[in-house]
Amino acid sequence: MVYDRYWRRTCAATYARLGDQVVCEDIVQDIFLTLWTERTRLQIAAFPGHLAAAVRYQAARYQRAADASPLRYADALDTLSTDAAHNHGEYHLLYRDLKGHVAAALGQLPPRCREIFLLSRLQHFSNDEIAQRLYISRRSVETRLTTALHHLRLTLKLVGMVWLLVHHA
Fold first, then answer.
1. Is 65 helix (H, G, I), strand (E, B) or coil?
2. Which GO molecular function entries does the Swiss-Prot or TrEMBL record give (predicted)?
3. Contact, 152 vs 103, CB < 8 A?
């Protein structure tokens, strides 16, 4: 019954994000399969909101996987593009380092502020969904998100300045 009621709407929302009908149907099928297999564990307060968040998450996950460059082989180095021949190891290390700094900066935030930021930016909940989930006003959500983003900007700006001084001195 739930599948019949929400399938078309969920598929349309997924198609609006990805533009590929076959992929959308697969993603929607996976969403409903997960709902079924996890039905005893899940506690869903607002089902349409949960579906919308699942669509956002799954579409973003699909796009990240599609954007990942496949491994390509060539007989001669000059047949590869410069991007394919470039070693991205240093960038991955810098990214991991940056993630550590972001985690440390988030650790400095008050718990509720951090929770709201994580719901918004990592779990892709809208401000209304966060407000409803945490039983607070939308304005309170917006204020705490602004506080978190301001703190992160300042902290990461300082980290960037220190990194530049250390690595380019």
1. helix
2. DNA binding; sigma factor activity
3. no
| Full-model pTM | 0.46
Distance of alpha carbon 17 from alpha carbon 84, whole angstroms = 28
The reported pLDDT for the residue numbered 142 is: 95
- Give CA–CA dist 158/94, Å, rounded: 16
Task: Return the pLDDT at 65.
Answer: 78
**Token pair 């001669």 in the structure block, residue:** 76
- Inter-residue contact 112 to 101 (CB < 8 Å): no
Helices assigned H by DSSP within the chain:
2-18, 21-37, 47-67, 82-85, 89-107, 111-121, 127-134, 138-167
Q: Name the nearest CA neighbour of 58 among 4, 5, 15.
A: 15
**Could you read off the pLDDT of 113-144 as tens digits, one per residue?**
999 999 998 888 999 999 999 999 999 999 99
Instruction: Give residues with Cβ within 8 angstroms of 80, minimum separation 6.
Output: 72, 74
The answer to whether 77 touches 85, Cβ cutoff 8 Å, is yes
Tell me the backbone φ, ψ of residue 154, rounded to 5 degrees: -65, -45
pLDDT, tens digit, for every residue of 85-108? Answer: 556 777 777 778 878 888 888 899
Selection from 154, 152, 157, 142 nearest residue 103 by Cα: 152
